[in-house]
Amino acid sequence: MQRLLSVLVLFSGAVYAIEPYTCRNGAFPGYEGIKPARIVAGEGEKVHAREDSVGCPEDDRCLRKGYLINGDKVLVTPAVDGWVCTYYFGKKSDYTGWIPESRIQMLPYSGHPEIKRWTGRWRPISIYRGNKAADFINITRTVRNRLQVDGYTYWDGGKNSYGETVIHYGGVSASGKPKGNNLTVKEGDEESACTVRLRLINNLLVVNDNSQCGGMNVRFQSIYQKTHR
């Protein structure tokens, strides 16, 4: 199935349009105002997402083949000019794109989840960067409702010009105390600290970092689900 993403506005006098390339799968975890929602559509109706390139999402050429149906659960960012950047994931793939605001119904979520909702082993559900089987985040409860976050991630750069496999690694091990459904942890000194932000939205963990948590191109920048593996 599919997924969806975020929004910015470009003002030009009295005319404004959605800035291109602002509803992207890889960038979605870093967007502000992410909330849960569902798709609203008629019986058998297909709601096609739209590209985020120049002139989109208004132009009909922006229509994608992929579509969502009534009741599909998504994550969304705040609407801009009648469009919502939406993220969807299914069993085999994930997807981002623009959806008309009229097709989105917001869903409730806890702004102050219980500590036990955070704890456990989490793995990224996004597959856009290839095999993520080794990536994980472990969250455990310590004292006074603080949470210990231990995570591992990597970037697979394929083969270089010499035929050598290029893999860069990264990780974080730090603790913090949630503020509502947000948790920020830092490892290292202030100037070069690895900073990871985690947002718990129902059963999903939205994670992004400051690009200081490992080698080149290594990021904690995914949507995670709790797992027993």
Which descriptors apply to this entry?
single chain; 229 residues; mainly beta; SH3 type barrels; Lipocalin; 2 domains; five-stranded antiparallel beta sheet; 1 helix
User: Ranges with pLDDT <50 over ≥5 residues?
Assistant: 1-16
First-to-last CA distance: 24 Å
Judging by the overall fold, what is the CATH architecture of the largest domain? Beta Barrel
Order of strands in the sheet with most strands = 13-12-11-10-17-16-15-14
Query: Using only CA atoms, what is the Rg?
Result: 19 Å
Strand percent estimate: over 45%
Q: Profile the largest sheet.
A: 8 strands, antiparallel
- The average pLDDT value, as a whole number, equals 88
**Secondary-structure class:** mainly beta
Name the helix and strand elements from N-terminus to C-terminus, one letter apiece. EEEEEEEEEHEEEEEEEE
Helix percentage range: under 10%
For the record, the CATH class of the largest domain is: Mainly Beta
Number of strands: 17
Shape: globular
CATH topology of the largest domain: Lipocalin
**Whole-number tally of structural domains:** 2
* Helix count, DSSP H or I runs of 4 or more residues: 1
Compact description:
This protein is mostly beta strands and 229 residues long. Helix content is 2%, strand content 46%. The longest helix is centred in the middle third of the chain and has 4 residues, at 115-118.
